[in-house]
């Protein structure tokens, strides 16, 4: 069966509702998990969970060396056989890298008697890496039902099992159990992808000799994407490490809870909007040219801005209603900080849309420059404001840095004549 085949359905509306429900479930479960940790464990455990979650997001960026973005962008217009051949070479490289990391983590655990939690976390990172690849691959192929079903297993189903179990049985209320269930969810999601894509010509592709040149060529072409990704992911997660350094693990737990609430809205929007915006922008640029891409990006920008304001506000008020249930007095004293962080993350989402628009127009160099610059702007803002304003300074730093980056990216997208902007695109 061709990858172009979609499940038969008599109602597109029903499919859209199913996809929306799965996306909302992922957002709600991540939201609920953070509340569970704050309520049934403690804020320090939440801070440690936040640091581990940052590593789970950052390590795949280093491992994939920027190759995944180019592969997913090429998948929009590539033939099935070429797409699968590229992916099997790339995933062979990924498997080799994580085998080495798991071996190192296991040896350190055995030789130094450290907690096996880190071995579990490395395994979670591996399956999150592959799971994200699968999600973006299927999204690029516009297989949104598949992508979201797999994303639901990885991002929500295991939480729906773990949290009720841990509420009923206190022996499950620990980070090793939590990450263990997360690992099971990741394994199950990859297994579901293997089942759904069983008719794809994987065996034909794997029967051919492995060509190292495919990997080396992809790495050569993707160095800009690696730098861009490193800049992007660092700007997303470095603040929690700086807060831990300056204010301690407990305060970092408060920040991570507020960050989780605020980012749940923008994460949902990324799944609802950007999942469809990304391939549409890529296709428009390739088939209709520069002006059409900019016009479409402007329409998407307006839609994204309105949705961001509405959903971020709704999520913020929902958290305010749930706050007494968490029973953590330290959270109440930081209420104004919460809204500052929510506002900062909303503006950051709009800045991230600017990066998406630059990338889909093949402005890889400008995407990289702005992503790297965003790290410097955020770090400078955090270092300036954290020591004097605490968590308020952290929220203000996100807001200021994100506003600067959003204005810069939109200036690059819409402020120059089209010909002068797009003539600087990368050759990738």
Write the layout of secondary structure elements.
Layout: H1 12-40, H2 43-64, H3 67-75, H4 80-112, H5 117-140, H6 144-168, H7 175-196, H8 202-206, H9 212-221, H10 223-247, H11 249-288, H12 290-326, H13 329-332, H14 335-360, H15 364-415, H16 418-422
Helix pairs in contact: 1-6, 1-11, 2-5, 2-10, 2-11, 3-4, 3-5, 4-5, 5-6, 5-7, 6-7, 10-11, 10-15, 11-12, 11-14, 12-14, 14-15
Write a structural description.
The longest helix has 52 residues, at 364-415. The chain is mainly alpha-helical and 428 residues long. The protein is globular and about 60 Å long. The protein is built from 16 helices and no strands. The two termini are 30 Å apart. The protein has helices at 12-40, 43-64, 67-75, 80-112, 117-140, 144-168, 175-196, 202-206, 212-221, 223-247, 249-288, 290-326, 329-332, 335-360, 364-415, 418-422.
Pick out its properties.
mainly alpha, 0% strand, 428 residues
**What's the helical proportion of residues?**
over 70%
Low-confidence runs: 1-7, 417-428
CA-CA gap between termini: 30 Å
**Coarse structural class:** mainly alpha
* Share of residues in strands: under 5%
Secondary-structure element string: HHHHHHHHHHHHHHHH
């Amino acid at each position: 069966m061709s990858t172009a085949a979609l499940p038969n359905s008599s109602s597109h509306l029903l499919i859209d509702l199913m996809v929306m429900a799965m996306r909302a479930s992922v957002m709600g479960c991540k939201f609920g998990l953070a509340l569970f940790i704050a309520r049934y464990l403690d804020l320090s455990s939440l801070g440690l969970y936040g640091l581990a979650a940052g590593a789970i997001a950052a390590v795949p960026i280093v491992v994939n060396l920027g190759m995944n973005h180019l592969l997913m962008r090429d998948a929009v217009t590539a033939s099935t056989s070429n797409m699968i051949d590229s992916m099997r070479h790339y995933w062979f490289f990924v498997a080799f890298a994580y085998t080495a990391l798991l071996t190192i983590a296991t040896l350190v655990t055995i030789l130094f008697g450290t907690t096996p939690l880190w071995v579990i976390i490395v395994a979670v990172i591996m399956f999150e890496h592959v799971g994200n690849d699968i999600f973006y691959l299927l999204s690029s192929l516009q297989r949104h039902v598949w992508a979201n079903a797999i994303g639901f297993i990885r991002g929500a189903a295991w939480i729906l099992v773990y949290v009720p179990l841990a509420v009923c049985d206190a022996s499950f209320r620990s980070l090793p159990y939590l990450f263990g269930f997360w690992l099971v969810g990741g394994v199950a999601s990859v297994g579901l992808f293997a089942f759904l894509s069983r008719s794809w010509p994987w065996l034909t592709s794997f029967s051919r000799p492995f060509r190292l040149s495919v990997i080396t060529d992809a790495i050569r072409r993707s160095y800009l994407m690696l730098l861009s990704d490193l800049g992007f992911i660092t700007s997303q997660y470095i603040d929690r490490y700086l807060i831990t350094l300056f204010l301690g693990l407990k305060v970092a737990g408060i920040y991570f809870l507020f960050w989780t609430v605020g980012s749940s809205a923008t994460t949902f929007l990324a799944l609802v909007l950007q999942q469809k915006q990304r391939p549409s922008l890529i296709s428009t640029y390739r088939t209709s040219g520069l002006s059409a891409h900019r016009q479409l990006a402007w329409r998407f920008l307006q839609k994204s801005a309105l949705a961001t304001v509405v959903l971020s506000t709704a999520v913020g008020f929902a958290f305010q209603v749930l706050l007494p249930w968490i029973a953590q007095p330290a959270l109440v004293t930081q209420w104004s900080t919460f809204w500052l962080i929510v506002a900062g993350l909303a503006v950051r989402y709009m800045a991230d849309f600017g990066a998406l628009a630059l990338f889909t127009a093949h402005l890889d160099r400008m995407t990289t420059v702005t992503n790297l610059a965003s790290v410097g702007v955020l770090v400078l803002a955090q270092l300036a404001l954290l020591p004097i304003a605490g968590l308020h300074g952290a929220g203000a730093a996100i807001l200021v840095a994100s506003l600067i980056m959003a204005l810069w990216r939109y200036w690059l997208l819409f402020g120059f004549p089209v010909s002068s902007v797009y003539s600087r695109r990368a050759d990738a």
